[in-house]
Structure to design on (945 residues):
């Protein structure tokens, strides 16, 4: 286990390093992203641009610029080219909203995905299953931006059931916090609910044909026990690993659209705005932030998998 | 024109180890799985060598290593007095028609998406020896040879029973007119009443085509029936070798004896007598 | 005369499929008395597994058509409710299946799976007591270091130990009947011998009745008291072990016996074989289902023979063949072997 953790940590550092290089290079290749120009603003004279260029070190060779930027990322001194604000602080401000959105949606999609998948599998072929299947497919088919737009129109505009956006910190007003997050949670979760219920249904139907389920019945166990302790337990293993990867991806940037549409001022929204402005420092920082979570959850998923399925050992041998 | 006196296949001190790797940044070998641990045997032309052993003894790995489907760790494999151990894939290619394999599981060794004609004809296509109408005729000939009808050419594997699928596998192995066929448990997955059919088919083909067989199985009864000589394999080594009847009637190695002693006797009186002897003790 | 432990009468099991009604079992009857080992022999498609699994109700499904009767000490099982069957399963009728690797749940420890079986039927037994019983059972089936092994996962045990563990689990509640469905087919021959020895011992010590499903006549010879030979869903011959092996009456039985390899006899030139292949159950011929493959078939075989004993012979030895006793004797042996060759 220790060996596994060390290897993954090293791998993580390598991945983050590679990502940072790629992001940096991309931004130095895209046209119209001359940061000195932007910092100078409109109506800037060439001299102003040149002096800003020198001040900020844009004349330095690329590796030096890269090194300077990376130092700033980790020392907390990174300043946005556009807004001149401290990037790390901006990210820190956005974290509560992003985490609230992602964790809440994850809990919803995990519980409903499993519930609907289980019901679908147990009642396979019957009315319940058919209804849930249609709902799942509809859920999977609805893109986030469309769904959000529908919610906003019908539930905040036509009928003012929910607020149309904005984030209320949990510490300030728990009820308000939840109230503002209901629609974003649903928007983000619905696709996953559909997907997870289909996957679980499929896994459970396969598991029901397995020999060990036949043995469990032959032992005289109650049908409920067979379903939960044997069929469901084994079918959840792929769900858990899927969840780890999806959650990491959502945290790492998959919630951008939702945040932006509902104006939650989270890290994702910050990223979206920075991209619009081609503002390298925030983009770099947010990308690394996101990549960190994705890689972390990848590693956690591998550990979880080994814990859930005793046949898997973290360090496989040739046997 | 080769001399007919030497063995067709000669294996000397063949070794196949699988390394077990572990490490922090760089994998280092910490242990080895000694699947084949110094095996020597030879097979004369038109002879059948039976290779018997239980699961995990290395017989399947041995087959694959002899055929160069796995690269030997050490040792020599001579086919028609030519060294083939360690040959590259390219170098093995012209030899492949001469050494073919029949596999155990008739349900897994045929591509379910291909038609029978395609499956049997594939070796011919790969070796570019025939094509078109001549290819089709040759395939139908092969199908008849193994007891199927030429009309089966366009059907899919799932339309056939286990025994018929095994016949298809044999037809495929015969396509390039091999000299040596390695049969890895060819009848273990078949029903008892079909087993005899396939064993008899292999026997007939050997007489008709002058084939040499290495017949691998875990059932010593079947192995004894088909083989001229038997080699007993245990934990990567051959522990006993000799004429089939001698090995079965007067085994010298304790492992061979335990295999024979464990084989159930399909004769109630004999079986009871043996149990009485066992119960009486030494 | 006491009632048999298990009395099966005219069991019929059909499955509705896209291709029509597949009659997997077509009128199987047998009795099982305490301490008896009954072997049901046949090839794939014979219906032996379906017969075995239908008795504790494991084949019930929306597309299954089950008829007939199966009485355990007089209690009818085929009509019983699921709740009643659950009481019987594991407690009075236990099952062991072919592949212990897939028949045990891979994510639970072996001991825990035995404990689960125990506590499902004995509510008053606590966790610790159940665990103690489980370890005892593992010990009684010959597993060394049973306390340690109880904490092992199935994949950590060897094939033979896994099958012993399955047997331990099946017998934990001291059932009357053990149904073993091809228990040694997936095992090496030396392990197979050990498992058969274990089953014989358990049969003796606990007076355990066993229904053994197998395709291997050699296994039958090692353990059975009585034998049912099945083909395409029907019983084609039944009798005591010695009757089946030394006085077989049905051509299919002759074929099966003939295709056995005997290590203690000289090798025949050619292995006697049965031509053709077992029929598809969706497309059975009228009359005797073995007729298409039988070298002795004649006109009458288009009519299904009944399962009958020969007049004057043991009434328990029955077969489903129209040939007369003399004809059978004549055709059965050729060159001193029981085989299925074309008559001269």
């Amino acid at each position: 286990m220790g060996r596994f953790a060390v290897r993954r940590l090293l791998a993580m550092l390598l991945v983050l390093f590679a990502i940072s290089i790629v992001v940096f290079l991309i931004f130095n290749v895209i046209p119209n992203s001359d940061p000195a120009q932007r910092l100078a603003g409109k109506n800037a004279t060439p001299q102003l641009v040149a002096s800003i260029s020198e001040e900020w070190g844009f004349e330095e060779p690329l590796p030096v610029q890269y090194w300077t930027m990376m130092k700033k990322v980790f020392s907390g001194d990174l300043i946005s080219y556009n807004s001149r604000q401290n990037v790390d602080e901006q990210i820190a401000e956005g974290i509560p909203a992003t985490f609230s959105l992602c964790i809440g949606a994850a809990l919803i999609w995990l519980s409903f995905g499993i519930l609907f998948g289980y019901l679908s599998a147990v009642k396979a072929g019957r009315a319940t299953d058919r209804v849930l299947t249609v709902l799942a497919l509809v859920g999977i088919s609805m893109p986030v931006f469309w769904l959000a737009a529908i919610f906003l129109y019908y539930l905040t505009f036509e009928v003012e059931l929910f607020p149309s956006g904005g984030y209320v910190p949990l510490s300030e007003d728990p009820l308000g916090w939840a109230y503002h997050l209901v629609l974003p949670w649903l928007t983000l979760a619905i696709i996953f609910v559909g997907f997870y219920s289909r996957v679980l249904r499929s896994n459970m139907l396969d598991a029901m044909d397995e020999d060990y389920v036949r043995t469990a019945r032959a032992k005289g166990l109650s049908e409920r026990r067979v379903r939960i302790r044997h069929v469901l337990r084994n079918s959840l293993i792929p769900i858990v690993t899927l969840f780890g990867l999806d959650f990491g991806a959502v945290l790492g940037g998959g919630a951008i659209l939702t945040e932006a549409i509902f104006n939650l001022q989270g890290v994702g929204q910050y990223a979206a705005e920075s991209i619009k402005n081609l503002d390298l420092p925030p983009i770099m920082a947010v990308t690394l932030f996101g990549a960190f979570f994705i890689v972390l959850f990848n590693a956690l998923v591998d550990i979880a998998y080994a814990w859930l399925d005793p046949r898997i050992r973290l360090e496989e041998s040739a046997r | 024109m080769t001399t007919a006196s030497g063995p067709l296949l000669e294996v000397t001190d063949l070794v196949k180890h699988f390394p077990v790797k572990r490490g922090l940044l760089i994998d280092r070998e910490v242990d080895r799985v000694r699947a084949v641990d110094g095996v020597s045997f030879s097979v004369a032309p038109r002879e059948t060598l039976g290779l018997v052993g239980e699961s995990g003894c290395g017989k399947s790995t041995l087959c694959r290593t002899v055929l160069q489907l796995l690269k030997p760790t050490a040792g020599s494999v001579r086919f028609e007095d030519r060294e083939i151990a360690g040959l590259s894939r390219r170098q093995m290619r012209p030899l492949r028609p001469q050494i073919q394999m029949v596999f155990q599981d008739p349900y897994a060794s045929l591509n379910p998406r291909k038609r029978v004609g395609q499956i049997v004809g594939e070796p011919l296509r790969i070796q570019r020896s025939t094509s078109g109408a001549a290819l089709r005729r040759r395939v139908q000939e092969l199908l008849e040879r193994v007891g199927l009808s030429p009309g089966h050419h366009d059907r899919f594997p799932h339309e056939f029973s286990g025994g018929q699928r095994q016949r298809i596998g044999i037809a495929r192995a015969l396509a390039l007119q091999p000299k040596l066929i390695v049969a890895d448990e060819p009848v273990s997955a078949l029903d008892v009443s079909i087993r005899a059919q396939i064993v008899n088919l292999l026997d007939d083909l050997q007489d008709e085509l002058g084939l040499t067989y290495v017949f691998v199985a875990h059932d010593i009864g079947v192995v004894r029936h088909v083989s001229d000589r038997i080699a007993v394999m245990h934990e990567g080594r051959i522990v006993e070798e000799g004429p089939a009847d001698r090995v079965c009637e007067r085994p010298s190695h304790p492992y061979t004896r335990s295999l024979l002693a464990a084989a159930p006797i399909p004769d109630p009186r004999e079986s009871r007598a043996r149990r009485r002897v066992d119960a009486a003790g030494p | 005369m006491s009632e048999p432990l298990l009395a099966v009468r005219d069991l019929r099991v059909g499955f509705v499929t896209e291709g029509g009604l597949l009659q997997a079992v077509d009128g199987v009857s047998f009795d099982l008395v305490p301490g008896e080992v009954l072997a049901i022999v046949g090839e794939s498609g014979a219906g032996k597994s379906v017969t075995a699994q239908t008795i504790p109700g494991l084949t019930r499904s929306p597309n299954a058509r089950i008829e007939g009767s199966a009485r355990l000490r007089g209690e009818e099982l085929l009509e019983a409710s699921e709740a009643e069957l659950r009481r019987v399963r594991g407690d009075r009728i236990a099952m062991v299946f072919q592949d212990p690797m897939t028949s045990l749940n891979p994510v639970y420890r072996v001991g825990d799976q035995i404990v689960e079986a125990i506590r499902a039927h004995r509510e008053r037994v606590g966790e610790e007591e159940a665990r103690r019983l489980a370890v005892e059972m593992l010990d009684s089936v010959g597993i060394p270091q049973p306390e340690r092994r109880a904490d092992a996962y199935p994949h950590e045990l060897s094939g033979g130990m896994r099958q012993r563990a399955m047997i331990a689990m099946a017998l934990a509640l001291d059932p009357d009947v053990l149904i073993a469905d091809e228990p040694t087919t997936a095992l090496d021959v030396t392990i197979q011998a050990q498992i058969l020895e274990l089953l014989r011992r358990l049969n003796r010590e606990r007076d355990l009745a066993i229904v053994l499903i197998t395709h291997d006549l050699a296994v039958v010879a090692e353990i059975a008291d009585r034998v049912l030979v099945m083909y395409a869903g029907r019983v084609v011959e039944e009798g005591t072990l010695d009757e089946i092996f030394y006085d077989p009456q049905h051509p299919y039985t002759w074929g099966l016996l003939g295709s056995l390899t005997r290590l203690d006899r000289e090798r025949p030139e050619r292995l006697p074989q049965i031509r053709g292949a077992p029929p598809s159950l969706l497309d059975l011929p009228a009359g005797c289902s073995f007729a298409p493959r039988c070298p002795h078939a004649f006109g009458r075989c288009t009519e299904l023979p009944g399962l009958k004993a020969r007049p004057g012979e043991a009434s328990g030895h029955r077969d489903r063949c129209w040939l007369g006793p003399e004809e059978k004797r004549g055709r059965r042996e050729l060159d001193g072997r029981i085989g299925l060759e074309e008559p001269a």
Notes: The longest helix of chain C spans residues 189-206. The radius of gyration of chain C is 21 Å.
